[in-house]
Design brief:
9 strands; binds guanosine-5'-diphosphate-alpha-D-mannose; about 10% strand; about 350 residues; alpha/beta
Amino acid sequence: MISIIVPTYKEVENLEPLSQMIAEAMVGLDYETIIMDDNSQDGSIEKAQALSAHYPIRLVNRTENRGLSPAVIDGFDEAKGEIVVVMDADLSHPASAIPKMVEQLQSRSSDFVLGSRYVEGGSIDDSWTLWRYINSVVATIPALPLTKVKDPMSGFFAVRKADIPEKQQLSPIGYKIALEVMVKGNFAKVSEVPIHFVDRVHGESKLTLSEQLKYLRHLRRLYQYKFKTKAEFIQFAMVGSSGFIVDLAVYLLLQMFGATHTVARAISFWPAVTWNWLLNRTITFNHREKTKKSTQWSAFASSSLLGFGVNFGTYYTLTEYVPFFAEHTILALIIGVLMGMGFNFSISNLFIFKK
Ligand code: GDD
């Protein structure tokens, strides 16, 4: 059996055409449609109940933990089929693609099938404004390294129920449940079936600005999950680069107020270190234990001083003892910076920001 999960919120006008579209696409296939509604007060509940007399529809009226992703995750528990499909109610996802998606799972040529607008043969409604298109592309780019697909924003997908990650593993934050399942499921074979995405005619999109901000948090968590230490290192390096700007600004400012360059250099290190420590505590290692601030700051400042020693020591050794670097001092400087940063990161990761 195929279980089609449809999260809905205020979709009364779409329920009937949706049921018809699914029925036409699923002729000859054993399926159920599970409407996961968040207690919409627009007549959706009555409509779904009425439709269940003519179509294989099951309505689940949710009154707690509202949201698109939580509704889909609860839908996984409700599904009776060995194959689960998730699609929107607003007729933007063509049900006609479902048999092909299911076939790929049944033949085991794929473990996760995505309805995709950005593969060959896929397309988007002409009614999309340039602004909406740019918005979609901008949101898509940071998600690309997380998966192998071209349309990680899509909300239309099919998967074998047995392969869905455990409920506790899924974080029901935001709108991107396909991305969440894809990353956490770590599927060996992921494929994309081209779809023509049609803009909704009835009702409104519920994708608010707050949902878009949640998407940024979601992305961060997925990066953390997928790349773990690599993601922390990248954030650490970004924080370090911003700290360099603080260092430079204070260094120049102090000289403008009459300090000598050596005094300015000795002082500017401290606000930069404090800046780095604060950002690493609140961003890079935000998920780590929040230990006492003063002790952690002292440890971080000491490690940064040592890190500077490693940085300078590397530079000095290379340029003094390796003839090649005597002529390529910039390269020696870069290697020194990387060594120093690697040292700082290792100490911070292992000892300062406790797991
Ligand atoms: N149960 C429940 N609870 N369903 C919800 C909620 C909610 O809080 N919010 C939205 N939904 C349902 C809608 O009723 C619709 O069936 C589906 O989730 C998608 O919501 P829309 O608000 O129509 O989203 P969209 O059209 O802006 O975004 C769609 O397109 C994106 C790609 O452009 C979604 O499919 C996204 O997943 C997709 O990434």
